[in-house]
Predict the 3D structure of the following.
Amino acid sequence: MAAVAEAGPQSRRFRDLLEDRRFLAPALISPAALFIVLLVGAPLVLAVYLSMTDATAGQLTGKFVWFHNFTDAWHNDNFRRALRNTIVFTLASQAIVLVGAGILAHALVRPFRGRWFLRLLILLPWAAPVAVSTIGFLWIFDSQFSVVNWTLVHDLLPGGGHFYLYKPVNWVLGVIDHLPWVHVGKIDRLNPPQWLGQPTLAMLAIIFVQAWRILPFATVIFIAGLSSIPTEVHDAAKVDGATGLRKFWHVTLPLQLPIATVALLFGIVFTATDMTVVYILTSGGPFNSTHMLTTWAYQTGIVSSNLGEGAAISLYLLPVLLVVTVLMLRFARKVEVS
Amino acid sequence: MWATLRERGVSYLIVGPFAIVLAFPFYWMLVTAFKTNGDLYNLNHVPFTYHASPPALGEKLTFQHDHWLPFGFDHATTSHINFIFSDTNYLRWVENTAVVGGLVVLITLLLAVPAGYSLARLSGRWGQSVGVGIFLTYLVPPTLLFLPLSRVISKLGLQDRLWSLVLVYPSFTIPFATWLLMGFFRTIPAELEDAALVDGCSRLKALARVIFPISIPGILTVVIFSFSLCVNEFVYAITFISGTKQHTISAGVPNDLIRGDVYFWQSLMAATLIPSIPLALLYNSFLNRFIAGFTGGAFR
Amino acid sequence: MIWKPSGRRGLSKSLTRRQVLRRSLGGFLILYGGALPKTAAAGVPKYVHKQYKNTLKIIQWSHFVPAYDKWFDNTYTKSWGTKHDTDVQVDHIALAQLPARAQAEVAAQSGHDIFGHLSPQAGLEDQVINHKEIIQEVTRKVGKVSRVGYRSCYNPKTRKWHGFPENYVPDPIHFRKDLWRQVGIKPSTWDDIRKAAPKLKALGHPVGLGMSNELDSNMMLIALMQCYGAFMQNSHAQPTINSKRTIEALKTMRDIYKRGMTNEVFAWTAASNNQGYLSGRLSLAVNAISIIRSAEDANPALAQNTSVAPIPRGPVQRLGLEHVMGVYTIWKFSKQKALAKRFIADLETNYQGAFKNSKFYNFPAFRGAVHNYARQLAADPHKGKYKVLDLIARKYTVNVGYPGFSNAAIDEIFNTWLIPQMFAQVAQGKMTPAEAARAAQHEFKPIFAKWRARGKI
């Protein structure tokens, strides 16, 4: 205190300013905010403008057509399917990620022998650049050389036992077939499944690859969340006699909720706005059946040169994601407070 | 003793299958990278082992005299892996990716740490709204932004240079980093800072001397996540840079290893493996440090 | 909530891990550092050629024949550059990224002086110069442009050459002599293929005709339609896809699929028919000579057993398409227009080098640019197999959009895979041929109307 009091009046005023929350807060935020406004906000405004024009082929100006592009897009079958696919794709892959990461994180917080190595294996999908690892999946799901199909239909124990993997799989599929509303075929040995060529299988393949690559990311976030639960909470739980499943339900799960919500939110946003996996695996799929809004917008705006329409299609994502985001953030805050 | 054995068994039972499913593609890539063309494109061959096949032009059977090798490895070749290094600018791409990643991480930290701190500590009610606002920038897909950004990049004269990526990437790493750090700083008890302030530190000094060392794990997390976001980025990397010597891995590999309708599968597999393993090692080691800092005593 | 420092146990564990990691990272860095001098020695391109006055930037696809790119980048452009005091920089890009890159350059209003597309880009007409001067110069030197080139790159409505047709690639069929001999049929008409397909499938060697959203399928199916006399548009740029002939073509393909192929063909990429044929499984494929050239390197026995022939005849005619067409465009914003025009003109008038180094993949769009096709093709070491390419290139190749021009509407239809989609839905039984043809016409009409409203057709 004394040191501060001895400094001259001018520097004191500056230092007071630095102490003042009302100055410091904006000062610290402004570089980041400025960056984002310039590099995201400005192009976004331009994109909104483009979506209301009939711009084509990369030119950044056009004649105003107001909301014509938006209504036009809506009347296109492919667009409606793309919208549906985006929702299915996002929800399905994130559901898998949420459950998987939750389970995995719990198992990984406890130390055990070999944990470091197993964790390394689990981190691999996230470490690989997504563009090249998806190209790897192109080969894994190839229409002729798929290793998945090979493993399914070939004799895995040629020497003695003769084990064919597709037989037990067909048994399981047969059981599933008995459920109402669900119809799955069986694996034909001479015509193995076309993972990227049959609409349903293609959707499954895309969902799988996206879940595969996001799972490590979500697991790390969950581990961070779990690790930040302070020891007192565990001690208190132990004192209260809560163990095992009860402890999980009443103590760990509620405490994990905020972090789980954040992980889910980021997962949803990254999945809904990303086109890499779909673009590389199916480019929109067997006859446009696996298009997402992002790939359909790319197809319309870039490949077919209808830039205005492409921008309009991309912008359809915005309100949907906005609503989801606000809802989830509100939920997270509520949970955090309690 | 049985309890711990059972616990351990359960751990393996849960983690094992996940690890297998997640890592199998990489094992597959490893096996494929060494295959000869004749072996790879033959539907009658077992894909997991190597088989003799008619030699193709330019393929050298490196191990052909080592018949003791398992899995038929004496029929494998390293020519396709060598192809990446001899016929493409692969090493340059790796270098470019590392440089861009490093610079972007630096910029992200410089801008996001103060922003996160400000939102966590100093801003009160409007901080929430700004936080949400920053997050909303994620809702805009890069497939929409890359065209207007191309104009910006060319006006700045950065087209075909790595600096274009260094400029644009923070636009999606900063929001994420700010968010992470905001949440992180909030969990640091205010008493620590207040103690420092009472002792005569200015707020900025408190930030540097007290908060920063404690938040190293949070900062490391931001480093890993931002770096991984940069390495994975694809759309901007392909659009802003066309010279093959200036490509990053995401842009260079699809360009040079897919020629028209011919895919160089073995080289593609190797090209994926080579950066993934060191990166996974790196992430894993950071994770260790991060968790060690937290779990001291939590789970025994 | 008190902040706890890391416990002793946690600390020591992470220390040993850290040691291991440090050592391995160090080792990796040492290895990498060892490789650095080599990459550093490669240097930054612009410093090496600082002595040239001009710079010319070209971008084009990575040619499937790597030797062509080596010749083009390291030999041809270097020697041309020396003669014209120019540093010619060539960048390559994957096929799939061409449209995105082109539009980004337009948006940025800066980029490469010469952009090499693999199909006529009518949609970009407003962004490029009128290439008629180059056409005129080359015509003066070597003769008229071929029918394919003219109809691909000229827009009769605006009277503008929206691209320079540099080369086109004939699209033959490849078939296994031994297998077709076994079934006792020759693939000279589409009906022959229809008859042979089930027999070949029974042998385990089906025919490979894709119906997927990729280039090979697109080309093959449009060619099939042409052989049946069905066309996407007429010479007045009106959509004519809904016709009895289209329905015939759809029926044929559905037949071939149902009795002779499996549903893998809906999942094919451009590489799938190559790979399927090279593995020895497929007995027929419609593709540029990339298949047989790959076979010559990787499986000479297979190459020996392969014949190359023109597209099969349909009930109306025998007419195929170019597999790809190399089109060079110069942006309006380029600062080196004159130099770019000179480069393209020089390349085309002396096309011999490109023709040979692409292993006869690239045929010049100006027929007179190469002499003695027959002799060169016959001189190929593989026993004159390629002689038929000349016949295909001269008689059986037309542009996409024949009998009209390759205009922006055709461009859009081609790029959005409407034809493979139509065939796939019929083959899978999702629509009858009549419904599909009607639906296609329904989809074509607004596309044509839109571009007509923009004054492009």
